[in-house]
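Section 5: illustrative case.
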């Protein structure tokens, strides 16, 4: 009797941050979830890879060889606390995995399954150095409130020091935080992801530390008062406290390394974290006088709620062209980043048309559509086809989105 093998797409429940990106991306509607896990329907998944690159942690990029007739069921996957080991499977009678499937499996396992690539000159990132089972231990070196005392939200700039533990990161990457304690099912809390807000050489240059930007969550998506597990844990940390860190994650939302590259950055709220990292990287290299423009669109409710507002505004315009979109200023109409993009149409069009421009969008999921419409409009007004340009930007590793 012959037994054929298939590759089954599975999601690592230990690393998954339950952000729903895979489920909303999958064209086959193959991803589903319950309150515990995100899982993949074996029968619906065609391994197209659309979900691979957008996943912030790489939890999505796991594959198992299984007997075609007995893949892991949805119920089994929903019960997992960690991925099962790859079972040793015999292949009989010349059946089993065809070479092209094996090659595809290996490519996918190596994280090459998605459509988005990093800028060609980006430094090769380190990823997954510290898994959930063996997290790095960092100590809090500082916890600074960024928002005004009377602001509607508490956003923190938290500096983590890794001492003698290596934590090599690049601007645009994220780390996972393991909050202590357990959920209502007595299972350890799953990891929460935060973008690194400092450049590769550390929050303090040449120190083994990094910073993250954390907003204290005090209500759920429906506005019901709820204390976010990880954000409240982090915001309450004191200098010297230990934090368990996993990762780093992210291999595409990276900045170009070559002189002459332009950065067009659009962010809302704490989505400013990677933009701060990239801006600070460039600021520290100003003495080199490398060519390349930096333009930033930054949305927040009011100046007092804008992370990094003060330091950013002190940077000269020839170094960074900062465009603030403040949405809740008394007596003024609501302005979003997409409105500011329209207002700066000629300069945005010039940058978009430039072959060395790299676009980064980070923040609220809701901004994606608005920014897309604004780019479309700006392009039309300047004789360009946004859809065609977007395809080229994506193909060249020049368009990067990280929204939740
Ligand atoms: P927020 O304070 O709720 O909003 C920031 C600004 O965006 C406000 O002015 C808001 O206006 C405006 N806004 C709301 N809807 C918009 C839309 N459809 N288009 C454009 N602008 C819009 O932001 P936040 O709570 O900091 O959220 C930031 C997001 O970034 C979160 O989803 C977070 O997960 C994500 N993120 C965070 C990190 C990190 O490391 N912490 C990293 C990457 C991404 P109004 O409220 O006045 O409508």
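Designed sequence:
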């Amino acid at each position: 009797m012959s037994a054929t093998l298939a590759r089954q797409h599975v999601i690592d429940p230990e690393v998954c941050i339950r952000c729903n990106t895979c489920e909303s991306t999958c064209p086959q509607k193959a991803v589903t979830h319950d309150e515990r896990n995100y899982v993949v329907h074996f029968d619906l998944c065609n391994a197209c890879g659309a979900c691979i690159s957008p996943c912030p942690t790489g939890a999505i990029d796991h594959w198992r060889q299984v007997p075609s007739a007995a893949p892991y069921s949805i119920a089994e996957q929903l019960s997992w606390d960690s991925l099962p080991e790859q079972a040793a499977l015999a292949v009989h009678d010349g059946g089993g995995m065809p070479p092209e499937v094996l090659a595809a499996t290996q490519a996918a396992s190596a994280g090459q399954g998605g459509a988005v690539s990093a800028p060609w000159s980006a430094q090769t990132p380190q990823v997954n150095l510290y898994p959930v089972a063996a997290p790095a231990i960092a100590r809090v070196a500082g916890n600074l409130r960024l928002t005004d005392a009377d602001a509607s939200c508490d956003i923190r700039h938290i500096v983590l020091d890794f001492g003698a533990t290596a934590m090599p990161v690049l601007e645009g990457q994220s780390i996972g935080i393991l909050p202590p304690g357990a959920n209502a099912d007595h299972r350890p809390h799953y990891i929460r992801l935060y973008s690194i807000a400092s450049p590769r050489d550390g929050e303090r240059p040449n120190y083994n530390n990094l910073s993250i930007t954390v907003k204290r969550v005090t209500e759920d998506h429906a506005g019901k008062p709820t204390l976010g597990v990880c954000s409240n844990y982090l915001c309450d940390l004191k200098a010297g406290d230990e934090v368990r860190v996993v990762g780093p994650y992210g291999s595409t939302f990276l900045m170009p390394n070559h002189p002459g590259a332009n950065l067009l950055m659009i962010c809302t709220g704490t989505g400013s974290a990677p933009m701060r990292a990239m801006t600070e990287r460039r600021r520290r290299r100003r003495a080199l006088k490398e060519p390349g423009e930096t333009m930033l669109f930054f949305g927040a409710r009011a100046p007092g709620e804008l992370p990094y507002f003060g330091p950013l505004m002190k940077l000269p315009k020839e170094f960074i062209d900062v465009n603030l979109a403040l949405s809740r200023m008394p007596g003024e109409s609501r302005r979003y980043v997409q409105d500011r993009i329209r207002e700066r149409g000629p300069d945005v069009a010039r940058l978009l048309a430039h072959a060395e421009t790299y676009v980064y969008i980070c923040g609220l999921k809701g901004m994606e559509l608005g920014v897309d419409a604004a780019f479309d409009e700006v392009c039309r007004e300047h004789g360009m086809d946004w859809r065609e340009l977007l395809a080229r930007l994506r193909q060249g590793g020049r368009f990067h989105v990280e929204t939740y």
